[in-house]
Amino acid sequence: MSHPTPIAATALAAPDGEAELQTVLLIADADTSREQAVELLEPDCTVLLAASGAEGLERARLHQPDLILLDLLVPDMTGFEVLRRLKADVRTAAIAVIFVTGQDHPEDEERCLLLGAADFLTKPLSAPVVAARVAAQLQLAAYRRRVAQMEHLDGLTGVSNRRHFDETLAVECHRAQRAQSRLSVAMVDIDFFKQYNDRYGHARGDEALHAIAQALAAGMRRPADLVARHGGEEFALIMPDTGPANAQKLANLLREAVAALQIPHAGSKAAHLTVSIGVATTEVGEDGEGEAVLKRADKNLFRAKAGGRNMVVGEAS
Ligand code: GH3
Ligand code: MG
Ligand code: MG
């Protein structure tokens, strides 16, 4: 089977800049239609196969595909049941499902759509119809994914926003408490930034905020570390599983990375933009959503400002 246009209209740009193929999970017993579908999708998408409803549900949960093609006739349960279970599970409810059925029964089509299927295909499959319908759903999936990512990001700086920070901090605090590990947070505030705006203008101020945010993000080492814009010219960091000594070490590297940008600021002692950072660490088993440790980090930030700025203040190990 051949088709003129690529199915996956949007190659998603991964955060590291590499394009990523979209993933389609095909839940169907082995037959010629399944072979046809694989052949049609394979050059443009990553295709995952599941030969039963149970396997399909498991793979959907595990791999979070962009789209599911679901045959009405799977061996272990009806396709309707698979769809019902996909929609009942928060981990899979948002994944679009296209139903594939052998008979042209309008009542099947109606039932699928009522159960939440996104679209419907009838066997024998027609290549152009499959390509068009799959492409439409994949485009929507790409759009949804981008919106979900944007909801977590601060528009000006490209790092996480305050809401995402608050949610992540609550989750990580509970995780640290359960794991009996320590979690560090830091508050980062740009020094003499009001003067920077007054002297160079708000637009230059915005550019500096973006550059500093990106330098902080680039300096964070572990996948679980998080940089967020906490508000105005303040950033906040979450460093899971990190004690006071390592958190202060990292904070100092970040402070140096910002200074190394050498963004000129005639109104600052250092003659370029710098940041002050306050660090704090949870006690092992500490309860709470993170307000307490954040407050301690803020107090240390105040000390860093009072101590002369462009410095890190943390807690004793
Ligand atoms: P300190 O060294 O004590 O932190 O002094 P500061 O001037 O940095 O602190 P202050 O709180 O007095 O001023 C913060 C400034 O940050 C004022 C505000 O105009 C600027 N600011 C906050 N958000 C933005 C923004 O989104 N864009 C720009 N360009 N400036 C911002
Ligand atoms: Mg401030
Ligand atoms: Mg400031």
Q: Overview of this structure, please?
A:
The chain is α/β, with parallel strands linked by helices. The protein contains ten helices and twelve strands. The strands form three sheets. It has a five-stranded parallel sheet, with helices on both faces. A five-stranded mixed sheet has the order 9-10-8-11-12. It has a two-stranded antiparallel ribbon with strand order 1-2. Helix 2 runs parallel beside helix 3 and helix 8 packs across helix 9. The protein is elongated, with a radius of gyration of 26 Å. About 3% of the residues have low confidence. Bound molecules: 3'-deoxy-guanosine-5'-triphosphate and magnesium ion (2 copies).
Write the layout of secondary structure elements.
Elements: E1 12-13, E2 19-20, E3 23-27, H1 32-41, E4 46-50, H2 53-63, E5 67-71, H3 79-88, E6 96-101, H4 106-115, E7 119-122, H5 127-151, H6 162-179, E8 184-190, H7 193-200, H8 202-219, E9 226-231, E10 234-239, H9 244-260, E11 275-281, H10 291-306, E12 312-313
Parallel strand pairs: 3-4, 3-5, 5-6, 6-7, 11-12
Antiparallel strand pairs: 1-2, 8-10, 8-11, 9-10
Helix pairs in contact: 2-3, 7-8, 8-9
